[in-house]
Design goal:
With about 150 residues, the chain is mainly β. It has one domain: Jelly Rolls (Sandwich). The chain is built from 1 helix and 12 strands, in the order ββββββββββββα. It has a 5-stranded antiparallel β-sheet, with no helix packed on it. A 5-stranded antiparallel β-sheet has the order 8-7-10-5-12, with no helix packed on it. A hairpin with a 2-residue loop joins strand 2 and strand 3. The radius of gyration is 15 Å and the shape is globular.
């Protein structure tokens, strides 16, 4: 369903270095990189892509909870990633996916298709869908107007 990619920090007295992504390890080439800052309590979800865009999620600062729903089988995946768990999560875009900011965070996602505002490949399900509602840490999230729509 998803691919979990552990990230290794190489530390010394100057700080640390970490590889975020290696194209040779991904099923598809990356075509766009996006960055979002979110306040604690924000949920950005659930979205999916019918035409095949996949996402590689990384939390660069803070902690987020990634939630993924296989829309066909109902199988779910969740993992808290970020400062305390440096992991990248590769999500096939046909699965509904999103994240919750467990702290104020800086979130990066690489995608396999460029966004086309004239014909966006983005559909949505409610963050409170019965199959995933119990996976979030909050039941009163901060939502965009689009994510709050039923």
């Amino acid at each position: 369903m998803v691919t979990r990619i552990p990230l290794r920090r190489h530390e010394d007295d100057r700080g640390w270095f970490m590889e975020l992504m290696r194209a040779s390890e991904l099923p598809k080439p990356v075509r766009q990189a996006n960055l979002a800052r979110s306040r604690k309590g924000v949920i950005r979800a659930l979205h999916f892509h019918e035409r095949g865009q996949d996402d590689l999620f990384l939390c660069l600062q803070g902690m987020v909870r990634v939630v993924v729903l296989n829309r066909e089988t109902g199988e779910t995946f969740t993992e808290d990633i970020g400062d305390d768990n440096p992991v990248a999560i590769y999500v096939p875009g046909i699965h509904a996916h999103g994240y919750e900011a467990l702290t104020d965070c800086l979130f990066c996602y690489f995608v396999t298709e460029e966004y086309d505002s004239s014909d966006p490949d983005e559909q949505g399900l409610s963050w409170a869908d019965a199959r995933v509602k119990h996976l979030w840490s909050t039941q009163e999230p901060i939502l965009s107007a689009r994510d709050a729509a039923p």
